[in-house]
Amino acid sequence: MIGKYKFEKFKDVNFPVYSSTQRGSGMIVIPHYHEFAELIKIKNGSVDIIINTEKILCKKGDIVFVPPYCVHNVYGITDNTEITGLVFDFNLITVDVCGYSVKEILKKEVIKQYVVSESNDIYKHLNNSFLNAVELYALECNTYKMQMLSLLLNICTALVNNYFSKKDFKSFNRLQPVFEYIEKHLEQNIKISQLSESINVCDDYLIRLFKEATNKTPISYINDLRLQKAIKLLINTDLSITEIAYKVGFCDLNYASRLFRQKLGVTAGQYRKISKDNKNI
């Protein structure tokens, strides 16, 4: 399924949280994707939600978790259909706070079950935090960001508890020095041997451990991180595409261009134009 990248209209681009409600029947959310996490609650009626190529029938009360970069759209089945979405950036929940990267463990490659139903053990916790976050979003108060961060932490806690056991965190905990090394040296030429040395293992074992934890090779993980940073620079700066590529750590512009088109379906130049066009709407 092909979808359009969606640029959310955040109140504050430095605090990426957005909520909206859609009602009616037929296609009420067009196919799209974004770099942010999203929760969708079916408040009334029933819907078909398509995530990537999977079609899921959801009923009133269900909460759907859509990981970043998943193409998704929604069809209202009943005339009284009503859904509310909450979009937020996992980067608001930092490694320093959690001890691990939420965006890495709650990514599309490892999430197989998107719907959290009322029978789920974490539903009450997730639902309460979701409803409070949506209500808070509509308000103006001096402590808005602090309160919202608290609710997003509760939401992420519920999601992590739903999808991961203690065993799943062993690999992540072991790899923390590796993740930190990558973040610190992203603009440089990072070698596998440097990563393996950071946790005193051989290269083959590091690659195997990395795949277990992230479903990616270290190189793929690094490339994805560089692309994410490149996207933000394309949107928020006037730096040339060449300057951006080198700034985020790509030493081969042609290689970076191929990766960008492969992941996003458009060239970096086309992406920047789409971004500017959306901002002007």
What layout of secondary structure does this protein have?
Layout: E1 4-5, E2 17-23, E3 26-33, E4 37-44, E5 46-51, E6 54-59, E7 63-66, E8 72-76, E9 82-88, H1 95-98, H2 102-105, E10 115-116, H3 123-137, H4 144-163, H5 168-184, H6 192-198, H7 203-214, H8 218-236, H9 241-247, H10 253-264, H11 268-279
Parallel strand pairs: 1-3
Antiparallel strand pairs: 2-9, 3-8, 4-7, 4-9, 5-6, 5-8, 7-10
Explained architecture:
By secondary structure, the chain is α+β, with helices and mostly antiparallel strands. It has 11 helices and 10 strands. It has helices spanning 95-98, 102-105, 123-137, 144-163, 168-184, 192-198, 203-214, 218-236, 241-247, 253-264, 268-279; strands at residues 4-5, 17-23, 26-33, 37-44, 46-51, 54-59, 63-66, 72-76, 82-88, 115-116. The strands form 2 sheets. It has a 5-stranded mixed β-sheet with strand order 1-3-8-5-6, with no helix packed on it. A 5-stranded antiparallel β-sheet has the order 2-9-4-7-10, covered by helices on one side. A hairpin with a 2-residue loop joins strand 5 (46-51) and strand 6 (54-59). The longest helix has 20 residues, at 144-163. The chain is globular, with a radius of gyration of 20 Å. The mean pLDDT is 87.
Question: Which features would summarize this protein structure in a list?
Answer:
single chain, 281 residues, alpha+beta, five-stranded antiparallel sheet, 20% strand, globular
Supply the helix-strand structural class: alpha+beta
Coarse morphology: globular
The main sheet orders its strands as 1-3-8-5-6
Secondary structure tally: strands:
10
Through-space gap between termini: 25 Å
Please give the oligomerization state of what you see.
Answer: single chain
Helix-residue proportion:
40-55%
Continuous helix count: 11
Q: Please tell me the overall pLDDT.
A: 87
Q: What is the succession of H and E elements?
A: EEEEEEEEEHHEHHHHHHHHH
Q: Report the major sheet.
A: 5 strands, mixed
Our estimate of the beta-strand percent is 15-25%
**Segments where pLDDT lies below 50 for 5+ residues?**
none
- The Rg value, from CA coordinates, equals 20 Å
